[in-house]
Amino acid sequence: MVNLRTMLESLKGFLKPSTVPYPYKEIPPAEGYRGKPLYDRDKCIGCGACSQVCPAKAITVVDQGSTRVLRVWHGHCAFCGRCEDTCPWEAIKLSREYVIVTYNKEEAEDKLELELAACASCGSYFTTSRQLAKIVELVEESINKRGASLEEYRKLISLCPPCRSRPEALKEAFKFMLKMG
């Protein structure tokens, strides 16, 4: 009798499907699922912090002429969320999207291009224009409170690191620091 009951139970398994009919029916991901990372193009300043912490090296930052290109290769991504945790501007978020299957390699990547700022002294590109604007925005109130010139500060940060270390630039930076108190 026990064997008959067991046999009937096992036969029931053949009558209905035991798996979900994916890809014909999409399955909603579980709450808290970490899907592919997506950039918020308005918030990203191109600092590259996300690429520094990516263990899979799925995020790359490359300067090409006057443009900084940030790429997320979804096929390489481990969906660990370190990029999302590290971004100081909350410009990269993990979506709940999990389907990244494609025949076209370019469709498996997100690309963001940002304009680079040129050094006011030598003309070489060293950071993004958005990053410089964000720096000014963060310190503007503090500079105005101390009576220093915001234009002087803009002039100082518009120099690339090698030009900032020149004696004339250091002298100007020292004068500015004295004004700041």
Explain what the structure shows:
The protein is α+β, with helices and mostly antiparallel strands and 181 residues long. The chain has two domains: 30-115, 2-Layer Sandwich (Alpha-Beta Plaits), CATH 3.30.70.3270; 119-181, no CATH class. The chain contains seven helices and six strands. The chain has a four-stranded antiparallel β-sheet with strand order 2-3-5-6. Strands 1-4 form a two-stranded antiparallel ribbon. The radius of gyration is 26 Å and the shape is elongated.
Sequence-ordered SSE layout with sheet pairings:
Elements lengths: L1 H14 L21 E3 L9 H5 L5 E6 L2 E7 L8 H5 L5 E3 L14 E10 L6 E4 H17 L4 H8 L3 H4 L2 H14 L1
Antiparallel strand pairs: 1-4, 2-3, 3-5, 5-6
Helix pairs in contact: 4-5
Identify low-pLDDT runs.
none
Distance between the termini: 93 Å
Q: Report the radius of gyration as a whole number of Å.
A: 26 Å
Order of helices and strands: HEHEEHEEEHHHH
Global geometry: elongated
Strand order of the largest sheet: 2-3-5-6
The number of domains is 2
CATH architecture of the largest domain: 2-Layer Sandwich
Tell me the CATH topology of the largest domain.
Alpha-Beta Plaits
Question: CATH class of the largest domain, anyone?
Answer: Alpha Beta
Query: How many helix segments?
Result: 7
Key attributes of the depicted protein:
181 residues, alpha+beta, Alpha-Beta Plaits, 2 domains, 4-stranded antiparallel β-sheet, 6 strands, 37% helix, 18% strand
